[in-house]
Amino acid sequence: MKKRQTPIISERKQPRQERSTLLVAAILEAAVRVLARDGARRFTTARVADVAGISVGSLYQYFPNKEAILFRLQADEWEQTGGLIGGILADASLAPLDRLRVAVKAFFRSECEERDMRVALDDAAPYYRDAPETAEHRKAVTQMALQFMKEALPNASNKQRAFAADLMMTAMSAIGKTVSEQGRPAAEVDALAAATGEMLCAYLERVG
User: Fold this and answer.
1) Domain housing 182
2) Strands (DSSP E) along the chain, which ranges?
3) HSE (CB half, 13 Å, CA atoms) of 191?
4) CA-CA to 197 of 20 to 30 Å: which in 19, 37, 125, 173?
């Protein structure tokens, strides 16, 4: 069986001038519109270029293929959400478990507010799931969770912290995704987030 090739998803070059920056922004804005309109399976560089009002050649100056564009959209979403959650979990003004409660609520709200885009990006995930850049992101998220567990579980073993970090990330991701797909009212989303946060806190209290 032929091994599936990992796509090249790194951008060809970074924009250095204002004109180039605006062009990349136009490409990404067009990509969001095409992804929302046509879905991941019908997403093509030609359609993105057409919506952006540029030639495919101009697009290829910055993105080598559609996978690179889709990954950039996903990476931007990861950076936004990761920055939000990471900032909360690192907030030393709150006790660790209070941080976790706030982080779960913020994550659930973020999942629901960007539901359509997240669903589209989930459909696009197979295009870049095996890429090294995706693995680097997973590693960074794991390190963020482990750093939090050092504070939340100061007396636990490294194995216990690793398991707790994995549980936290898995629970938040799985439950948050399900809740967002159900289209629940904001009050219900907050209630489910609060319950999820309490379950995770109860586990950490028992381990600690």
Assistant:
1) 71-207
2) none
3) 5
4) 125
